[in-house]
Write a structure and sequence with these properties.
globular, disordered C terminus, 16 helices, 15 strands, 7-stranded parallel sheet, Rossmann fold, 2 domains, binds adenosine monophosphate, alpha/beta
Length: 446
Amino acid sequence: MEFKEFNLHPVIAASITEAGYVTPTPIQQQAIPTVMQGRDVMGLAQTGTGKTAAFALPVLHRLMDGPRRTVRALVVAPTRELAEQIHESFVTLGRKTQLKSVTVYGGVNVNPQIQALKNGVEIVVACPGRLLDHISQGTIDLSHLEVLILDEADQMFDMGFLPDIRRILKQIPAKRQTLLFSATMPPDINKLAQDILTDPVTVKVGNTAPPVTVSHALYPVEQHLKTALLMELLKHTDTESVLIFTRTKHRAKRLGEQLEKAGYKSASLQGNLSQNRRQEALNGFRDGTYQILVATDIAARGIDVSQISHVINYDIPDTPEAYVHRIGRTGRAAKSGDAFTMVCSEDTVMVRTIEKKLGTALERRTITDFDYSVPAPKKDAEFARPPREPRPARKPVDAKKSSGGSINPFKSDHPGSKPSGRPQQGRPGVTGATPKPVFNSSRRGK
Ligand code: AMP
């Protein structure tokens, strides 16, 4: 199948070619014609499948006809980073259309958003909190909205945004096209879908299976040797960009600093950073200033860095879904990638659950020259696993609603995040180390 079969507007078709897309991905093959017909869509797809273009292309096509400089399409996304990425996709794919897109999220100055909305835009990509602020302040007019897209709905649910979503739904025209994308289908999202979609077409790719281009491996190791093993892995692996996941913000920050000390160009991305610092870390990772980014699940949600060669789980995730999400960051759109997971004895149950979900046993690897027998230091302050951070509340404290609704330019759209944190400098470091065959691979059954 080729893009031209969709009969998209010629200026959009030209941007697709310029973006270097040759063949539509499976989700695009299913979703684009359906959305072009004006149908509601329930899209079951994880990030990395090309789902953004699956909705951005037909929405741009629709907006080519009709009024300009009035908000006609609204995308709601859980995180600022994802909102930026979606916005960038609209800009890239719509660069010849004269259509305008703006992002709306907390943690940044509200005035440029107000000005952009005043000047007139057709597409708004928003996080729920700041969008509600604009609605209550009357700085956004959604009365002409034609298409609503809820992206990563399951993540919005996890982050406690569902009440906000329902509030937003009350403020937009009932007669509209609605597209809902989610990687998983927990009961609350199913209920939301039933409430807001009219006679939807379900498009589904890959279920929750990770991209086939990723090769997975487990590295059994004791907790106190994780950092040392990570350093060995990095030294002996030919990596481009590496995304490392930790369980907590504290561990992300600390590991980022340790990697920097060891000479790696690295940064950490976690909820305690100011928006400027987050963006700087993300941009630096994207443009190669940082080779390594250490992040928590929430901070890294939806990150699209096409050249990620390795995802390393310094800490195993809490759920098999989170595992699939994490490793979805590598092996994106037909690139191959590796996913390494460090596992301790206490992770046995989760490993089994993940293998069950994937339907296959994962390879266990050891590094030949690594000394696994080093005992844990007596006072294990450096490496001990800190208590788990509480998961974000399902029901957010609804401060903005009770506060009279004034727009706070410093408010974040991440529940629980505060603007703080100190900039970290990238340093020239050890990159492009020659790969050495140091791994002993052994396959074990389940
Ligand atoms: P997404 O799942 O929307 O985050 O997209 C994942 C990555 O795939 C992004 O870097 C897109 O630019 C890229 N992509 C989307 N559609 C295609 C396509 N048809 N061919 C090649 N790359 C694509």
